[in-house]
Amino acid sequence: MSDNMLSPRVRSPNLQSPTGQRTVPQSSAPPKKFDSDQLRAYMKKLLPSTLQGMVWDSKDRDQSKAWTKEIGERIKARMLEIEPSGFKYVVTTQINENLGQGGRAGLVCHWEDSDACIQEMYTNDSLICICIAFAIRIP
């Protein structure tokens, strides 16, 4: 393509590429990993202590919402105690009636080495609780 075919705006002397080499900041240390073992141990104690002896009542949705909210908030608070900055935290908690059913779930994400996904499950004769916590590194 010749210069005659370019519009005047493209040939403007004010629109020039920056000179010099582009520098990429070098990190001296690898990013800190979230301590998933510490959170997993907490979740293993929290779920039974919160839900042991509880009975699923399909008519009382407010109770299952309260359990779900309490568990999620306590896990997120513990995540902030373990690593107060540098991560985005997401906690999902699901409580369902235990009817002896099976289940299957999948999770696909683009992970970095410092990210973590921790899952714990609690069941009794009446209910099933599945809790998943994500710690995602932010720059």
From TrEMBL:
A Pfam match is Tctex-1
User: Cross-referenced Gene3D superfamilies, in alphabetical order?
Assistant: Tctex-1
Ranges for region Disordered: 1-35
Q: Where is the composition biased (Polar residues)?
A: 13-29
A cellular component term from Gene Ontology for this protein is: cytoplasm
Report which superkingdom the organism of origin falls in.
Eukaryota
Q: Which GO terms describe its molecular function?
A: dynein intermediate chain binding
Q: Which GO terms describe its biological process?
A: microtubule-based movement
> What's the protein here called?
Topoisomerase I damage affected protein 2
What species was this sequence derived from? Answer: Rhizoctonia solani
